[in-house]
Structure formats: C-alpha cells, structure tokens
Prior knowledge:
By secondary structure, the chain is an alpha/beta fold. It is built from 14 helices and 13 strands.
Amino acid sequence: MLTNLIDKELSRLKNAGLYRNLRLIERKQEPRVNIDGKDVILLCSNNYLGLANHPKIKEAAILAIEKYGFGSGASRLVSGNMEPHNELEQRLARFKGTEAALVFNSGYHANIGIITALAGRGDLIFSDKLNHASIVDACILSRAEVKRYPHGDVNALEGLLKKNSELRTPNSKLIITDGIFSMDGDIAPLKELSELADRYGCMLMVDDAHATGVLGSNGKGTLEHFGIDNPNPVLRHNGTSIIQMGTLGKALGCFGAYAAGSKKLIDYLINKARSFIYTTSLPPSVCAASIAAIDIIENEPQLRQNLWDRVKFFRDGLKNAGLDIMNSETQIIPVLIGKADKAVQISKNLLDKGIFVQAIRPPTVPDNTSRLRITLMANHSWDDLEYALETIKETVANFA
C-alpha cells in the first residue's frame, strides 16, 4: 500500500512538472562549476560575496581543526560548548550591534527554535504570506494563532493588528518577516513594520538570511539598510522587541545561523529553544571560519560594491528586454515564467548552453508563478554575465 502511494505521488509530480532531482556539483563553489563533466556558469548559488573559497576562511577552518579536531561531540548544554562557539557569538554581537547572540546549526533550526520559544497557545503571530518555509513550519509548530498578511502590505497588517487588539488581548504578539524575500528578491518594509510593532506593542522578528553581509553600508542587514536606530534590538523604549535572525551559509560562505538581541533574550533561547537544546553543536572549525568571514565583510566593502555593480547590470538587462523580474531589488532576480513545466524546460535548455539556473516551482512559490531564480555573486566575471544575460533573454523569448 505504501509503495502504491509513493509511486502515485511521484508520477503526479513528474506529470505536473514538479518532480525534483539532485544535481551533482563536481568541484568547489565558484562562479563556474562542473556538472556531468561540463563546465557551466553558476547562477543559482547563495554564495553572494564569493567567500566559500576565500583563503582566509579556509585557513581559519584548518587551524581550528588542528587545535580542536572536527566534531564537537554533543549539544552545547552537555559537553559541546567550545571556545569557537563563544568567540563566534561575541563576534556576531559586535557585528550586529547587540548585547548578545546565539548560534544555531542552520537557518531552519534558528527559525524553529526562536519562534516556538517566543509564541505558543494563546499568542498571536502575524506572518507575511511569502515568508520562508521554515517560518511557516515554525508558526505551525508553535501552536499560536497565525494571521498571514498579504505580502509587504503594511495597511492590511495594521488592519489585522487593530482588529485583533480590539477582540482580545493575547499573551503576546509577534510580527515576522523575511528581510530579503528568498524567491522574489524584494526587501521587507521594515521601517513601517517597526513602527507598527511600536504602535501595537508587538515583538518584531526579521529573518535576515539573505540580507546578512549584503544589505547596509557595512553589510549588517536590513536594519542598517533602513537606518533603523536599534543599538539594542530587544527592549526598545516602549518595551517592544526586534529579534534579528540570520544565516552564515549564504553571503558569509560558511554554515550555521544565529539569533541576535539582548542578553536576556539569548538566555531565554538557551533555555527554551528546543532546536538549540537538543542538537549537537556545530563543528568548531565552522565557527572559526564564520569569524573570519565576518572580518572580511567588515574589512573589504569592495566585495559588496562588486556584487551590486553586477546586480544592476543584470537586472537592467533583463528589464530592458521586457522580462518580468517581479519586484526584485537585490541579488536575487526572478524571471517569471508561469507554468512549472515550461520553467523546467527553459532551465534544462539553459544548462545545455552552459548556464546553471534553477526553475523554482510550487509549493516553493504559488501556482502559475514558476520562475527562474537567478542569483549573482561578487566574483562573476563580466564576460560570463554578458553571455548569460544574452542567452537567458534569447532562450526565454524562444519559449514565449
């Protein structure tokens, strides 16, 4: 019976153009990679600043392995709390301008842990409809009542906040948003969300996974991008809160995630975040590599400028060709295709021409909004970007 169920569902996915399979990258993450023995331009990596192979990061990891070995052996609360974990958290807190930080094993771990620790039965969560799947899952696991507001619509959110404030007084209220939305490439209206959080006495959490290292004059993320004065992002003047979450595996080129906020918040998460409590901690070498990555981001601002120069070139080229890049304003540039099977065919055609860009389909995005998700890196060569731009324009036009 189980076999029949699996076969039926796999067949349905294939017929609908929703079947997924793994592509093997046969060498390190660089602007060009090898797939099935073929050299191709990589346009779907989150290695935005090209740091995954930076010599200083590799050196830091190697030195840490020599000193600490590889595995940590246990969770942080048992025996897996080692010097590099504490050093990374102190470095993250300085970088984000907060009292403290806490390292998680992934962005998924962080969102599950933070959200379920802060909200539960009797509480209210207000979540953007296009928030990442890890936020969606965390909201469900929290058992709080979830109100989803239309993407980026602060007026609709205020209506929900006002209505629910009048109906009853929940134990706590939490607004959650991505900083940069991972499939659309637009930026959350964080300034307005912050004002609403103040006005209605809500906590505010921002998932800065795709903004850390990229947005802001110093790469500190969405708050810096909007100039939000938030030196201590929990317990602001009216007692409401901003919680910053981010990842180390995208622009930083490493692995893991973090929460940043007040010392009191971090102490609370250490005691309440189950995905932190019950998980073997990150290898010390990963923490050491992340510290080196933060140093690079702070000391080499030209990397961000290189990325934004390439983003402008590519985005302008697609728009001028009449392609629908939705509301992208960052290094994530979707090209709206529509039907899932059509997006898959375009992606395969591009791979044949030496360009690796993934087709994103439901359930990751809504029905009939399948797209190519193009992501740029600071170290893409201009020649490769010019070739990729012209090839994408021509290929999409041929499928029109």
